[in-house]
Design brief:
With 172 residues, this protein is an alpha+beta fold. Helices cover 38% and strands 17% of the residues. It has six helices and five strands, in the order H-H-H-E-H-E-H-E-E-H-E. Helix 5 packs antiparallel against helix 6. The longest helix is centred in the N-terminal third of the chain and has 13 residues.
């Protein structure tokens, strides 16, 4: 096994593409989630394209699609924005953009910042439908879907734990 993470991905990509070009079989796995979707692997896949190296994608668990399917929000089209920005001004701008979209917006959020993000949404549009999907495919899986004011009230009283995917319903 060889580690591939954000701090060594550029170096490892060179090493791994050389092995692939020499005929070595390689599997890119992650301990949670799907490689390349807010996890390392993008550079390796792009390098394979650029070098014309063959590869196969075998889908793994994706909290993005699991959250979308279980949210009860429109699924015909969606926007995935990765992790919400840490800085409050940037986060507020991103959340305002989500409220303006005509499709469901999906973000990863830290349990330590979730309530702050929900409070921003309450200020901007307290009746917007949102869903907080938490600990997906695990023992304490939870889908909390309602108007953002009610979801914010719940998580203010019950601080969230674990991995969180925040979904924001489209503009009505």
């Amino acid at each position: 096994m060889i580690s591939l993470h954000e701090h060594n991905e550029a170096q490892r990509t060179q090493e791994l593409t050389e092995k692939l070009a020499a005929g070595t079989n390689i599997a890119l796995l992650t301990d949670a989630g799907m490689p390349t979707l807010s996890d390392p692997g993008y550079r390796l896949v792009a390098a394979c394209h650029n070098l014309n190296l063959p590869f196969t994608v075998i889908p793994g668990p994706s909290s993005i699609l699991t959250a979308l399917a279980g949210s009860g929000l429109p699924t015909h089209a969606f926007y995935f924005g990765g992790f919400l920005p840490v800085k409050s001004g940037q986060r507020q701008r991103e959340l305002q953009e989500a409220l303006n979209r005509s499709v469901t917006s999906i973000y990863f959020e830290s349990p330590y910042r979730l309530v702050k993000s929900l409070e921003v949404l309450v200020e901007l549009d307290p009746t917007r439908l949102v869903c907080v999907a938490r600990e997906l495919t695990k023992r304490f899986e939870e889908f909390r879907r309602s108007e953002v004011a009610a979801v914010c009230e719940h998580f203010s009283a019950h601080p969230p734990k674990g991995e969180i995917t925040l979904l924001i319903g489209p503009a009505r």
